[in-house]
Design a protein that fits this description.
Order of helices and strands: HHEEEEEHHEEEEEEEEEE
CATH architecture: Alpha-Beta Complex
Structural class: alpha+beta
CATH topology: Creatine Amidinohydrolase
Helix content: 25-40%
Largest sheet: 5 strands, antiparallel
Number of helices: 4
Shape: globular
Number of domains: 1
């Protein structure tokens, strides 16, 4: 079931989104060679709890029956697509890292991700990051009343593949609200189904996951970490948005 949000509910989601944006802003300041992913995680949790929210990801159940997610954020380095577990990994010059943040405020979730360069990175890594963000923007442009989910998906895929990248198919965007994952699913590639028609009050997490090589991925033995099948780089860009009469509104931003 797709839940249409009232203005009161959207206000709570804006606050949750603002907290997520605060974390991402701080991550951009902290990320440099020598820092560990657990240090980033600890700082993120401090910010989320200080702002009166709860980390959405910490303790999140594992879809494969494994351990609940142990971190407050996902820290996905280089060929890790999503769900990287914070730990003792030390970031090195030339790495890229995707930070995925979720916060729940007043019972409503915000969810966003960015991929950051670590120090000086290769031009191909920088291009991947920039084009993944642009793929998100192309998808968001189609998130207007009367369009369908497929319009978002097609725009993302056509842009990314037009730049020579591939689009992950095993994991997709989603509706969001009182639950982290609600209906509808929002693939980053065109499917046979047109998907639901978009209407005012719908809230979506649009999140292109773009690979430099194959779109195929695999899940590591920890039953969380998703990596590219060929070991090549991957980037992730996500925002929670609302469908409004005036076009899409990004909820995961600083107001």
């Amino acid at each position: 079931m797709i839940v249409i949000k009232s203005q009161r509910e959207l206000d709570k989601m804006r606050r949750a989104g603002e907290i997520v944006a605060l974390v991402l802003k701080r991550m951009a300041e902290l990320i440099e060679p020598g820092i560990t992913t657990i240090e980033l995680d600890k700082e993120a949790e401090i910010i989320i709890t200080r702002e009166g929210a709860i980390p959405s990801f910490k303790g999140f159940p594992n879809a494969y029956g494994g351990m609940d997610f142990p971190g407050s954020i996902c820290t996905s380095v280089n060929n890790v697509v999503i769900h990287g577990i914070p730990g003792n990994t030390v970031l090195k010059e030339g790495d890229i890292i995707s930070i995925d943040v979720g916060a729940v405020f007043g019972g409503y979730h915000g969810d966003a991700a960015r991929t950051f360069p670590v120090g000086n990175v290769s031009q191909e890594a920088r291009d991947l990051i920039l084009h993944t963000e642009e793929a998100f923007k192309r998808g968001m442009e189609k998130a207007v009343e009367g369009n369908r989910i497929k319009d978002i998906s097609t725009a993302i895929q056509e842009y990314a593949e037009g730049k020579g990248y591939s689009v992950v198919r095993d994991f997709v965007g989603h509706g969001i609200g009182t639950e982290m994952h609600e209906e509808p699913q929002v693939p980053n590639y065109a499917t046979r189904e047109k998907g639901v028609r978009l209407s005012n009050g719908m809230t979506l997490a649009i999140e292109p996951m773009i690979n430099m090589g194959t779109w195929r991925v695999k899940v590591l033995d920890d039953q969380w970490t998703v990596v590219t099948a060929d070991g090549k780089l991957s980037a992730h860009y996500e925002n929670t948005i609302a469908i409004t009469p005036n076009g899409p509104e990004i909820l995961t931003r600083l107001y």
